[in-house]
Task: inverse folding
């Protein structure tokens, strides 16, 4: 009987410790910023076919031509991509060159998406198996990268671009040499 009592008190102690640990973690501020391992790294080599007929495809060489660009990872099936579309247009109107990488998408779906939500892209590559997406450190859609004129990633914006993100992204693009 004495062993059972010691065992039960031990269980109560472990439960109290875990409860205290969980309670402590809930009081800590949430850190939503994810530091990409690709910041400061050159874009890996790739060559994507065109995702739609009216725009050329995208290759890593296009990102190392001396001009800073935004690389937007998107998909026609992505709901937040629809919400960020007007803000991409604002960036384009502000002088940003934006290239796109369409993830796991069909050409007709990409064309329909662009017809409805606008087409701020100068080039759009089709990344059918997310190979380029993963190689540049993107984990989802939408994501936007600032790439300097040498093809080096200088900034990563995770999630959809909102109105209050536009000035930050334009500043990061200026810092990259646009």
Result:
């Amino acid at each position: 009987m004495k062993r059972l009592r010691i065992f039960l008190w031990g269980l109560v102690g472990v439960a109290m410790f875990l409860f205290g640990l969980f309670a402590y973690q809930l009081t800590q501020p949430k850190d939503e910023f994810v530091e990409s391992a690709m910041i400061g790294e050159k874009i890996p080599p790739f060559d994507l076919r065109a995702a739609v007929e009216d725009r050329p495809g995208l290759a890593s060489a296009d990102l190392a031509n001396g001009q800073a660009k935004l690389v937007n990872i998107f998909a026609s099936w992505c709901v937040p991509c629809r919400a960020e579309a007007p803000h991409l247009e604002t960036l384009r109107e502000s002088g940003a060159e934006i290239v796109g990488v369409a993830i796991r998408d069909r050409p007709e779906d990409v064309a329909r998406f662009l017809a409805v939500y606008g087409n701020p892209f100068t080039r759009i590559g089709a990344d059918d198996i997310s190979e380029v997406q993963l190689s540049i450190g993107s984990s989802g859609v939408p994501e936007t990268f600032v790439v300097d004129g040498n093809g080096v990633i200088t900034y990563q914006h995770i999630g959809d671009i909102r109105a209050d993100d536009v000035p930050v992204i334009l500043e990061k693009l200026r810092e990259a040499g646009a």
Summary: The chain has a mean pLDDT of 91. Strands lie at 47-48, 58-59, 69-74, 98-103, 121-127, 143-147, 153-158.
